[in-house]
Amino acid sequence: MKILLFGGSGQLGFELKKRASDLDFELVSPVTKELDITDRDQVIKLITTLKPTTVINSAAYTAVDRAEEEQERAFAINADGVRNIAEGCKKSDARLIHISTDYVFDGLSGQALAEGDPTRPLSVYGRSKLAGEDYVREVCGDRGLVVRTQALYGQKGVNFVHTMLKLFGERDVLKIVNDQYVSPTWAGWLAEVLLDLVRLPVSGTLHASCDGVVSWFDFAVEIQRLSAESFEGRPMAVLEPTTAADLNRPAKRPTFSAFDTSRLTAVLGRAPMGWRTALETFLSEIGVR
Ligand SMILES: NC(=O)c1ccc[n+]([C@@H]2O[C@H](COP(=O)([O-])OP(=O)(O)OC[C@H]3O[C@@H](n4cnc5c(N)ncnc54)[C@H](OP(=O)(O)O)[C@@H]3O)[C@@H](O)[C@H]2O)c1
Known about the structure:
- By secondary structure, the protein is α/β, with parallel strands linked by helices.
- The chain has a domain of 187 residues: NAD(P)-binding Rossmann-like Domain (Rossmann fold, 3-Layer(aba) Sandwich), CATH 3.40.50.720.
- Helix content is 40%, strand content 16%.
- It contains 10 helices and 12 strands.
- Helix 1 links the parallel strand 1 and strand 2.
- The longest helix has 22 residues.
- The mean pLDDT is 96.
- It binds NADP nicotinamide-adenine-dinucleotide phosphate (NAP).
- NADP nicotinamide-adenine-dinucleotide phosphate binds next to helix 1, helix 3 and strand 4.
- The site of NADP nicotinamide-adenine-dinucleotide phosphate (NAP) has 26 residues, from helix 1, helix 3 and strand 4.
């Protein structure tokens, strides 16, 4: 099966590329310099020439706070770029698996979020990603699948786990938000799920995160506990809980993002990996445990 991957140089793209050949997929992934998804003609030409069975779109404008000032750029990539890919897929009858985010929700219900729950993005990034989702549904119909995920971390790129491991050794005190809750999701686990989905006839929207929910503060506490040995007695930052209001970042985030993953469990025939097990696996993989 031939997969065309957009966003192969990113955090999730890296994990997808690492696993695809072991699972007997032929995976082609142009770098951004060769192919910018905002270039409609190039995108359509590539898809119709290459004729992949499935396109995975992991390319996105992901600078959540900067997007508040770069609305046009965020929409050009996360909405118009996705429309270009969707149109290319439609022309060549390829299936499209598109990655989206929990930031399409406000997370105010305090309940695990199901695929059909009402969306209400609180940020430019969230609105741009929702617009991209809408194009997938509109253009691809049942040849499209929107996979929403959240709080990703993997080997490559800047993410919460890497940032914590770095700051534990550099700071005396670290203030971490304790009133926003997520299901931290290992990009390695998600990559395996996405490659399983390539072989399964599923369309619409699917929530895919590791299992369980935790505040960012408690997530940091667990990262510190699991990585303490690797600091070999060197001092580690003291963690202090704070609030999102105190931190006052430019983009508002959802308060409670945990997903209801029962559709994913039914589709795959297995439950998602628990967030703690996933974190342990990841830390072992990068040699921190
Ligand atoms: N990170 C998270 O916590 C998180 C949470 C929920 C959902 N998601 C979603 O998951 C997906 C993957 O995220 P990630 O963490 O892997 O993101 P990432 O590390 O920021 O990677 C984004 C990728 O998109 C590419 N890209 C950006 N603009 C492009 C353009 N105009 N044309 C072509 N490629 C372009 C980047 O290429 P360059 O390297 O060349 O710029 C990079 O390969 C995204 O859809 C994101 O919205 C992420």
